[in-house]
């Protein structure tokens, strides 16, 4: 038997509700991410996957429910069942252990690859540049782009840009990495290099939550798969079980479409 | 030869107004742009009104207003200060609109990336948004700046001896058109230097997109 202490839970979502205007996008999501787990979030487009991810790091704010990150409460309901957030400062502090990779990379175009990596450690963590540079170089080497460290992002391919974006997030030494369809904006021949980087990260037991349409990646690199449709979790379980042997009809229909 | 010396003195007045206006109106324009984009309705409405007023009336009228109307309500300003006030308020409004468009042209993803890296709003503006904005706004700012060189000649109505007024005085006194030609050449030199400077700046800030 596994004996899970609270410390092993990196992220816990309880009864998350989120609406845009009159439209309820997340309808009561419960979810737990443990240390070292790789969770793949799959589901049709428009089902609320990005919104779910963006609620975790407060790019969007939930309407009701509870968000806990490494045991610290980011938001929880008040007496009227309306979620209330901690202060901006506290929130930044709690979220400092999370990193995010976007579909559109979002590198800073006016900075070189190296400057992109150094920016947050130096400006936010107030670390010495000389001290961060070796770490940044090690990360760039890991994603295979050390020789591009003085290039501006516009000169890199999409796959290279995304690998820089991953390195930039890792340079803040996060404990949880969130990926929102990291390969969806890439030409098919470039997805492999990004997926490889993510697999390596998974092998190093980075805790990850990955929204993806790459079913092979979900099956092989993820420990858990969550299938979301219409703002609810329809099915979840061990990756291979959900993908190879889905129990719910809606999951079966979705996966049939993907292959 | 005496003519040229007089005209150089006039050029000094012109350049003085030009530089001081630029130095004040650029930061003021940036502040106004932030005000215009503020989520505080009162602030953004006020800035909208200010920009509308300054861009919707002739600069000449604004100059006359500061020069003649303010003293009537007891506000006495030295000539140069009055002129600078009108120029600065007017140009800040134009710069504000340029900066606002520049800030808005930067994608939401840049703010989000900065936020997920833990940067505060202030850090995001200073380190991520404004440097990128500068690149976008350089061409329109360059246009406005060149307009400013020429607009400085409007102060001739305030009886200040700028380049154009000096030229006109000499022409009227000596019935010789040469000072006008010389003035044109002076203006051309100033705008050419500016054009060159902005080209350099654009090249510097454009180095990151290929
Ligand atoms: N900022 C927003 N304002 C209004 N509606 C939004 C916003 N973001 C997402 N939505 C809507 O929420 C729904 C879920 O979107 P999203 O989370 O992006 O789905 P997915 O990532 O699964 O494709 C969609 O219908 C989308 O149009
Ligand atoms: Mg999405």
Protein described:
The complex is a heterodimer of chains A (259) and B (210). With 259 residues, chain A is an alpha/beta fold. Chain A has a domain at 107-174. Helices cover 36% and strands 27% of the residues of chain A. Chain A is built from 9 helices and 11 strands. Chain A has helices spanning 49-56, 88-95, 113-123, 129-142, 158-170, 188-203, 215-221, 239-244, 249-258, and strands spanning 9-20, 23-34, 38-42, 64-69, 72-77, 83-85, 98-101, 176-180, 207-211, 224-229, 232-238. Chain A has a 6-stranded mixed β-sheet with strand order 7-8-9-3-10-11, sandwiched between helices. In chain A, strand 8 (176-180), helix 6 (188-203) and strand 9 (207-211) form a beta-alpha-beta unit. In chain A, helix 4 crosses helix 5 and helix 5 runs parallel beside helix 6 (188-203). Chain B has 210 residues and is mainly α. Chain B has helices at residues 2-37, 41-56, 59-72, 79-104, 108-116, 121-151, 163-174, 178-205. In chain B, helix 1 (2-37) packs antiparallel against helix 2 and helix 1 (2-37) runs antiparallel to helix 7 (163-174). Chain B starts with a helix and ends in a 5-residue tail after the last helix. The interface between A and B is medium-sized, with 30 and 22 residues. Bound molecules: adenosine-5'-diphosphate and magnesium ion.
């Amino acid at each position: 038997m596994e004996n899970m202490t609270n410390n092993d839970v990196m992220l816990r979502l309880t009864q998350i509700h989120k609406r845009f205007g009159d439209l309820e996008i997340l309808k009561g999501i419960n979810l737990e991410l443990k240390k070292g787990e790789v969770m793949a979030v799959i589901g049709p487009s428009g089902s609320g996957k990005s919104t779910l991810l963006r609620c975790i790091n407060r790019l969007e704010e939930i309407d009701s429910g509870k968000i806990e990150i490494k045991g610290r409460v980011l938001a929880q309901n008040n007496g009227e069942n309306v979620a209330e957030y901690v202060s901006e400062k506290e929130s930044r502090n709690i979220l400092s252990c999370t990193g995010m990779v976007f579909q559109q990379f979002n590198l800073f175009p006016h900075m070189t690859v190296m400057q992109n990596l150094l920016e947050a450690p130096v400006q936010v963590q107030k670390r010495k540049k000389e001290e961060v540079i070796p770490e940044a170089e090690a990360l760039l080497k890991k994603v295979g782009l050390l020789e591009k460290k003085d290039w501006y992002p516009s000169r890199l391919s999409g796959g290279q840009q995304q690998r820089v974006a991953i390195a930039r997030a890792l340079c803040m030494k996060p404990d949880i990495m969130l990926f929102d369809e990291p390969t969806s904006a890439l030409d098919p021949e470039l997805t492999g290099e990004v997926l490889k980087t993510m697999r390596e990260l998974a092998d190093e037991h980075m805790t990850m939550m990955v929204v993806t349409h790459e079913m092979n990646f979900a099956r092989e690199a993820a420990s858990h798969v969550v299938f979301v449709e219409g703002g609810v979790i329809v099915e979840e379980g061990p990756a291979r079980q959900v993908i190879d042997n889905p129990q719910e009809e809606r999951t079966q229909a979705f996966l049939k479409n993907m292959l | 030869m005496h003519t040229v010396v007089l005209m150089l003195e006039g050029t000094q007045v012109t350049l003085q107004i030009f530089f001081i206006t630029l130095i004040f109106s650029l930061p003021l324009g940036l502040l106004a742009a932030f005000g215009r984009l503020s989520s505080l309705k009162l602030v953004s409405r006020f800035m909208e009104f200010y920009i509308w007023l300054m861009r919707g009336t002739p600069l000449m009228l604004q100059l006359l207003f500061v020069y003649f109307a303010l003293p009537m309500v007891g506000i006495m300003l030295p000539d140069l200060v009055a002129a600078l006030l009108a120029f600065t308020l007017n140009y800040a409004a134009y710069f504000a609109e340029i900066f606002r468009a520049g800030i808005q042209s930067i994608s939401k993803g840049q703010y989000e990336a900065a936020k997920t890296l833990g940067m505060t709003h202030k850090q995001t503006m200073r380190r991520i948004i404004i440097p990128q904005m500068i690149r976008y706004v350089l061409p329109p700012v360059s246009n406005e700046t060149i307009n400013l060189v020429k607009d400085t000649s409007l102060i001739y109505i305030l009886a200040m001896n700028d380049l154009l007024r000096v030229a006109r005085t000499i022409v009227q006194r000596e019935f010789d058109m040469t000072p006008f030609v010389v003035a044109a050449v002076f203006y051309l030199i100033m705008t050419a230097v500016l054009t060159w400077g902005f080209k350099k700046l654009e090249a510097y800030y454009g180095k990151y997109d290929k």
